């Protein structure tokens, strides 16, 4: 494919505003691209909600299946803070600007370009590629969860997630646990605190217990470092001269394999129970979008093949890295023994920021990388 055509696919995707909705428009656009190859590409839509469709595209008819994964949604953009329209892919100074340019419509577009080039070559394909274009990654990885629950990744020999990594090989990343603790008390006039029950104090006790726990959680992962915890929000009370009847606290935990999520839940649940019993409090805890960490994939065959492609074909370092942010790998790890790699053309510098961008050079290299990776991965699988 000519670079001009490949760049148009990316700018077209950026122009589709998919801030936690409208992903079906991306599915429509991608479907249109594969119409000329309808006899050799199988398309399957999986609806999550009205206007929100996952799209699976499989090319090839036999042999090992390599998964390509890219999410269709993006985070919000404040247009007043951008130098260009965030929902118009703008090429300037060897970069493409727009919301999703890095995270991760460039990865999705590069995967699509690679698949279209494979089909256009008219060469017999020794294996298959299945693209998973998913909804809702930025708010809970709903699409990836849906395709995993329906068994649509069970037959993959490996999967590459096109999140921004500057074409480095991200082989592990932290998991995440978000939680919200609600405290219910009893309102009274501040001049008569004995007549009420302060909802804020139990949260302070909880915060101290959690702080002490994470201070003692000193195991460090060789690539990811230590588990981290942030108390991210706290609010409560009605006015300054009243005993607060309700208050809430939220926290964000970035986990590592050394501490299981079950172990962390047990600690947090026990802390809630202890405070409720000892202080006659009414605390409840809710967990939101928990995702496990990606265990180290350094030595799986997919990573080794990808490293060889980057070094020998594209003359790039093929550096192994670790990430702190969660990806859809948190869902794909539920498939036992499936090799997983995070690697995409986005540099990861401007993700979720104003004036988000991807370099044109990196994007076009990404198109080459995914196509060459498919050939080399199939060759390696069939040599077994």
TrEMBL record:
CDD domains: M20_ArgE_DapE-like. Residues 172-277 form the Peptidase M20 dimerisation domain. Belongs to the peptidase M20A family. InterPro entries: ArgE/DapE, ArgE/DapE_CS, Bact_exopeptidase_dim_dom, Peptidase_M20, Peptidase_M20_dimer, Peptidase_M20A. Its cofactor is Zn(2+); Co(2+). This is Probable succinyl-diaminopimelate desuccinylase. The keyword Zinc applies. It holds the Pfam family Peptidase_M20. Gene3D superfamilies: 3.30.70.360, Zn peptidases. Pathway: Amino-acid biosynthesis; L-lysine biosynthesis via DAP pathway; LL-2,6-diaminopimelate from (S)-tetrahydrodipicolinate (succinylase route): step 3/3. Its EC number is 3.5.1.18. It is an enzyme of class 3 (hydrolase). Keywords: Amino-acid biosynthesis, Cobalt, Diaminopimelate biosynthesis, Hydrolase, Lysine biosynthesis, Metal-binding, Zinc. NCBIfam families: DapE-ArgE, PRK08588.1. It comes from the Bacteria. It catalyses: N-succinyl-(2S,6S)-2,6-diaminopimelate + H2O = (2S,6S)-2,6-diaminopimelate + succinate.
């Amino acid at each position: 494919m000519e670079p001009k055509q490949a760049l148009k696919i990316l700018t077209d995707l950026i122009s589709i505003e998919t801030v936690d909705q409208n992903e079906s428009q991306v599915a429509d656009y991608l479907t249109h691209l594969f119409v000329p190859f309808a006899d050799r590409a199988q398309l399957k839509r999986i609806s999550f909600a009205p206007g929100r469709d996952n799209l699976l595209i499989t090319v090839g008819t036999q042999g090992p299946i390599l998964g390509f994964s890219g999410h269709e949604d993006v985070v919000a953009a404040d247009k007043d803070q951008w130098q260009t329209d965030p929902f118009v892919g703008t090429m300037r100074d060897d970069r493409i600007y727009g919301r999703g340019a890095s995270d991760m419509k460039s990865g999705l577009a590069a995967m699509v370009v690679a698949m279209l080039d494979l089909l256009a070559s008219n060469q017999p394909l020794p294996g298959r590629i299945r693209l998973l274009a998913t909804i809702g990654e930025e708010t809970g990885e709903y699409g990836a969860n849906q395709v995993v629950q329906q068994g649509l990744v069970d037959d993959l020999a490996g999967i590459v997630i096109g999140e921004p990594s500057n074409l480095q090989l991200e082989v592990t990343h932290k998991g995440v646990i978000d939680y919200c603790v609600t405290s219910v008390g009893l309102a009274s006039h501040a001049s008569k605190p004995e007549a009420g029950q302060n909802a804020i104090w139990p949260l302070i006790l909880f915060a101290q217990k959690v702080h002490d726990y994470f201070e003692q959680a000193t195991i460090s992962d060789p690539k990811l470092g230590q588990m981290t915890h942030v108390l991210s929000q706290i609010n409560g009370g009605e006015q300054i001269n009243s005993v607060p009847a309700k208050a809430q606290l939220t926290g964000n935990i970035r986990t590592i394999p050394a501490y299981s999520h079950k172990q962390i839940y047990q600690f947090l649940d026990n802390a809630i129970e202890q405070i409720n019993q000892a202080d006659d409090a009414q605390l409840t805890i809710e967990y939101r979008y928990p995702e496990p960490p990606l265990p180290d994939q350094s030595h799986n065959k997919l990573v080794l093949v990808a490293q060889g492609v980057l070094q020998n074909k594209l003359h790039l370092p093929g550096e192994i890295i670790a990430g702190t942010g969660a990806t859809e790998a948190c869902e794909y790890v539920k498939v036992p023994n499936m090799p997983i790699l995070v690697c995409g053309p986005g540099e990861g510098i401007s993700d979720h920021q104003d004036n988000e961008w991807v370099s044109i050079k990196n994007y076009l290299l990404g198109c080459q990388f995914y196509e060459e990776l498919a050939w080399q991965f199939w060759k390696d699988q069939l040599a077994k």
